[in-house]
């Protein structure tokens, strides 16, 4: 444990010379100790900055988690005049770091015994984690070594931590591990992780290195993996490796005494006991290994897994952080027989499990919260997840696979070796992984009106996700967005449930066959239909979550509206065999049911009654992130209510211990019945068996070389081109000609982060060069035309034939992006200025890169061409493809484009409907635009009705599309309510297979134009 003692700074004012001398640094250290080396005195010598510069910076799990820091003058400062002070209120994880500059050499701390600092104690008993950064390229790509300090004192206290107290972090490493040796010769700084829960204040001062190095720190003994599984009868080989600071040979012998002792295996019956000593003599080189062999005994009896701890006693070096365990794999039991039907395997395994093991299977933790890797086995955890931005560093496919394999290895020490099911939010490609193919968000896919293309994007996503060892994707979102003020509206395929249903082919892209038979393949993942039900219909102003205005609010509907709009996509998902369903944070208020607003995680009538019983959903229900904490009552009530409502697995990122304990207590007390418990666990195990995880728990990286490949990016590029919606094209300005001189401006023309949106690398996404890809500007330049680029349109405007101004939103996710929560639907002042300058000087096309419509009606008169580009992702070439005519504009609006915010919510089917552009609108640049008038439309209606009668869907859709293009050509800029309403209604009718009625509505719109 760290040693500490108090020396109040007021004592330094004592005038007694002797006492002052005793307090001096020279007198407080041993005569032969080196002088303390300052790391940070917080007098301003180290700035607030980030890599690659030296500096102090904050970080956290979400936007609210980073602490607020300042250099504060304090009369009681222990070292100098200022201290580092801060406030925090952390729900996930957060803290701050002092990194040394990556542009300069690392520091050598090896001459010192440890590190110390002053801390202003609050006496609240909370733990502060203190980490140091060792090796690697720089502070954010180094190994983390950690210890903790308990704040059980008040006032200033100097905390001294010998380097021998630091342990290698096994739950999270930015680089996945370098050499697992605290070398101390290449140090990059330190980090402080602050307590979660109730907010607080802190103050810190005088970080410095102290004392003379402990010789034992120069050498350590490691065993590589902590867990060593073997088949019964085989011999386990545990490699013991010597590692030293700076790779220097040891100057003293290092001995490792070993013996097998304890565990669930029986000596003699299950294994041959071993004991002995291995020695690394003086002069042994770093990296030298010895092997300890542990023979196991074959007895031909079917058994659960058994553990054999190998106790190591190390002299002359630092021992391993954990005792290695040999595990004799479970064998011979029916649930392990892949030839048996899944249902039979589930029944057998379930019959063997304890209540605690079942509770564990229903528990999902965030990877970063599992500070003790042994917790995976200790709590029999069923699942881990990566929240948005929770990634290994470097954020590579190899690091993902290694991280997940290390987690899976921990499950081998449990009785039945039930593998974890690891989940991620891959909502538009494997968007957490830098270098993955990032697809258009769902709103863009909805604009393609191409179910086959949607399926192909899902297949690419599944292949890239599974290749990193992840078998489960929290996608697709089947919300029907009814109010574009919602910060999640871009996660919807559109505002029409019929459109959402048509795009659910993405489920087959992710999962393969409807019966789940493809899930074991190395390019398929389990899909999640979310968020059940009505998340897209919340009333503006009804949210009670922080500063959100609509997200997580209340959906007020009649029973008929609920069925027709919000429930319909879920029946389609169930019919397609979707493996999991996630309830919504929002509340449902069904008019006339007498219940009022009830959180979806508590609605047994909807989860058990509608989803599972009526719709026949046989997968499992996974809660949303910490969603049960929003239920009324105490924690036991949260658990009892959600489980009994039908939630099978609980996403409790940072409270997995509390949830598991509470669930076990509820089962013992009868609050949760054994039948409900068994049903939940059976559903979870069924999907694990279908995924083949019992046979292959580790990552199959066969497809890793195809992550971000040209073939995968070609699919994304095709989706981008098909998603572009041409709203206006006066004078046929588009497509551009390569002979034209093009002036490009606007905030979103050259920003891969902006065009990818939220849920890209991090939860909220970010502007800038965050992942490999092609920006829209780069795509235009590769198209071969003459391009002038000026973001703010400050470059000379003369001498150009046409302007392309790319404007829109910056990234956001969930309620952070709600209109009214610091957001609106207006272009930024800079974007408005760019549009005005360029469009006043030349013919111009304006591209809106956004997750929802932007209010641009006041500038339509000066804009010649207007394109809704949505959030295209990493393949900006797809935008250039339609701008230069390599592909035709064919996209259609998946949502209504309003004239003003006052019109919201506005949706197809509304009685009063007078938008800027109606749902389904989308001009084309096809070389042959259909011609004709009322007579042609009549013929099309008859032919479409005939196609409908005969079930000729392809012909029916083609006929309606031809009629739509004729109507658009006549309507042009004369889009009145009398045109817009039947036009939008026609597209809904098309999607529901009523082709004759669709052309009839289009004829009505034609006559009104």
UniProtKB/TrEMBL annotation:
Q: Is Repeat a UniProt keyword of this protein?
A: yes
Which Gene3D superfamilies does the record associate with it? Answer: 2.60.40.2030, Galactose-binding lectin, Glycoside hydrolase family 3 C-terminal domain, Glycoside hydrolase, family 3, N-terminal domain
Q: Mind telling me which SMART domains this protein's record contains?
A: Calx_beta
So which domain of life are we looking at?
Answer: Bacteria
Q: Which UniProt keywords apply?
A: Calcium, Glycosidase, Hydrolase, Repeat, Signal
Q: What EC number(s) does its UniProt record assign?
A: 3.2.1.21
The segment(s) forming the Calx-beta domain are 211-313
GO BP annotations listed:
cell communication; cellulose catabolic process
Q: Which InterPro entries match?
A: CalX-like_sf, Calx_beta, CBM11, Cellulose_Degrad_GH3, Galactose-bd-like_sf, GH, Glyco_hydro_3_AS, Glyco_hydro_3_C
Q: Does the keyword Ribonucleoprotein apply?
A: no
The signal peptide, as residue positions, is 1-30
Class of this enzyme: hydrolase
Which family does the similarity line name? Belongs to the glycosyl hydrolase 3 family.
> What is the recorded name of this protein?
beta-glucosidase
């Amino acid at each position: 444990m760290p040693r500490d003692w108090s020396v109040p700074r007021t004592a330094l004012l004592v005038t007694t010379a002797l006492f002052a001398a005793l307090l001096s640094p020279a007198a407080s250290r041993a005569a032969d100790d080196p002088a303390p080396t300052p790391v940070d005195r917080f007098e301003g010598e180290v700035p607030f900055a980030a890599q690659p510069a030296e500096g102090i910076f904050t970080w956290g799990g979400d936007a609210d988690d980073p602490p607020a820091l300042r250099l504060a003058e304090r009369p009681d400062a222990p070292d100098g005049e200022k201290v580092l002070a801060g406030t925090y209120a952390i729900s996930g994880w957060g803290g701050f770091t002092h990194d040394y500059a990556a542009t300069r050499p690392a520091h050598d701390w090896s001459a010192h015994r440890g590190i110390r600092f002053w801390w202003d104690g609050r006496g609240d008993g909370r733990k502060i984690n203190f980490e140091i950064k060792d090796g690697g390229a720089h502070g954010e790509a180094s190994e983390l070594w950690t210890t903790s300090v308990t704040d059980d004192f008040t006032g200033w206290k100097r905390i001294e931590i010998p380097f021998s107290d630091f342990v290698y972090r096994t739950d999270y490493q930015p680089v996945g591990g370098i050499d697992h040796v605290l070398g101390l010769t290449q140090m990059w700084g330190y980090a402080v992780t602050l307590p979660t829960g109730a907010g607080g204040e802190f103050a810190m001062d005088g970080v410095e290195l102290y004392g003379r190095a402990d010789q034992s720190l120069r050498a350590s003994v490691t065993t590589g993996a902590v867990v060593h599984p073997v088949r019964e009868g085989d011999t386990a080989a545990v490699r013991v490796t010597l590692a030293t600071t700076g790779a220097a040979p040891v100057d003293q012998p290092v001995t490792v005494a070993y013996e097998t002792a304890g565990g669930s295996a029986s000596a003699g019956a299950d294994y041959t006991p071993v004991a002995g000593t291995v020695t690394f003599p003086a002069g042994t080189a770093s990296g030298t290994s010895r092997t300890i062999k542990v023979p196991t005994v074959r007895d031909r009896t079917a058994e659960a897994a058994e553990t054999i701890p190998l106790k190591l006693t190390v002299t002359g070096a630092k021992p391993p952080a954990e005792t290695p365990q040999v595990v004799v794999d479970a064998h011979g039991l029916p649930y392990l027989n892949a030839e048996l039907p899944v249902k039979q395997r589930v029944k057998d395994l379930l019959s063997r499990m304890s209540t605690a093991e079942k509770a564990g299977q229903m528990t999902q933790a965030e990877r970063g919260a599992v500070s003790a890797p042994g917790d995976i086995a200790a709590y029999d955890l069923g699942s881990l997840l990566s929240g948005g931005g929770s990634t290994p560093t470097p954020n590579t496919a190899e690091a993902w696979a290694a991280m997940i394999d290390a987690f899976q290895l921990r499950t081998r020490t449990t009785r039945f070796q039930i593998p974890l099911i690891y989940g991620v939010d891959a909502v538009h490609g494997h968007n957490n992984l830098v270098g993955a193919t990032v697809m258009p968000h769902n709103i863009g896919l909805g604009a393609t009106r191409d179910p086959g293309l949607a399926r192909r994007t899902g297949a690419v996503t599944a292949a890239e996700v599974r290749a990193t060892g992840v078998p489960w994707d929290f996608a697709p979102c089947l919300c029907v967005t009814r109010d574009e003020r919602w910060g999640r509206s871009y996660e919807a395929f559109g505002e029409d449930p019929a459109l959402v249903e048509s795009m659910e082919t993405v489920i087959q892209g992710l999962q393969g066959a409807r019966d789940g038979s493809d899930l074991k393949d190395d390019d398929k993942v389990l899909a999640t239909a979310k968020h059940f039900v009505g998340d897209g219909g919340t009333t503006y102003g009804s949210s009670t979550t922080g500063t959100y205005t609509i997200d997580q609010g209340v959906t007020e509907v009649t029973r008929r509206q609920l069925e027709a709009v919000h429930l319909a996509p879920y029946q389609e998902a169930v019919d397609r065999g979707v493996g999991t369903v996630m309830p919504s944070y929002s509340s449902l208020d069904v008019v006339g049911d007498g219940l009022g607003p009830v959180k979806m995680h508590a609605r047994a009538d909807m989860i058990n009654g509608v989803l599972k019983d009526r719709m026949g959903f046989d997968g499992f229900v996974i809660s949303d992130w910490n969603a049960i904490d929003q239920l009324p009552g105490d924690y036991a009530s949260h658990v009892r209510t959600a489980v009994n409502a039908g939630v099978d697995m609980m996403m409790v990122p940072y409270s997995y211990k509390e949830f598991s304990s509470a669930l076990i207590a509820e089962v013992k007390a009868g609050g949760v019945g054994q039948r409900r418990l068994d049903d939940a666990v059976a559903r979870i195990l069924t999907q694990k068996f279908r995924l083949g995880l019992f046979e292959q728990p580790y990552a199959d990286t066969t497809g890793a070389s195809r992550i971000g490949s040209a073939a995968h990016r070609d699919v994304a590029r095709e989706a981008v081109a098909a998603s572009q919606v041409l709203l206006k094209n006066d004078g046929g300005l588009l497509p551009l000609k390569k002979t034209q001189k093009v002036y490009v401006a606007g905030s979103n023309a050259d920003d891969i982060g902006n065009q990818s949106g939220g849920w890209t690398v991090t939860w909220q996404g970010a502007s800038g060069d965050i992942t490999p890809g092609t920006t829209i500007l780069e795509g235009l330049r590769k198209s071969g035309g003459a391009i002038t680029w000026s973001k703010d349109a400050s470059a000379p405007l003369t001498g150009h034939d046409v302007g392309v101004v790319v404007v829109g939103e910056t990234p956001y996710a969930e309620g952070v992006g709600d209109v009214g929560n610091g957001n609106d639907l207006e272009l930024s002042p800079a974007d408005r200025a760019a549009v005005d300058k360029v469009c006043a000087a030349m013919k111009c096309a304006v591209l809106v890169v956004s997750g929802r419509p932007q209010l641009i009606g006041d500038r339509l008169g000066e804009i010649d061409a207007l394109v809704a580009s949505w959030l295209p992702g990493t393949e900006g070439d797809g935008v250039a493809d339609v701008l230069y005519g390599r592909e035709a504009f064919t996209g259609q609006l998946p949502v209504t484009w309003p004239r003003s915010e006052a019109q919201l919510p506005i949706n197809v089917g509304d009685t009063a409907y007078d938008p800027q552009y109606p749902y389904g609108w989308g001009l084309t640049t096809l070389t042959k635009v259909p011609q004709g008038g009322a007579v042609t439309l009549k013929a099309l209606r008859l032919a479409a009705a005939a196609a409908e009668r005969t079930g000729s869907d392809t012909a029916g859709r083609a006929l309606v599309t031809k009629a739509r293009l004729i109507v658009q050509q006549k309507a042009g800029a004369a889009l009145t309510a009398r045109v817009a309403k039947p036009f939008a209604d026609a597209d809904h009718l098309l999607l529901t297979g009523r082709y004759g009625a669709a052309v009839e509505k289009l004829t009505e719109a034609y006559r009104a134009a």
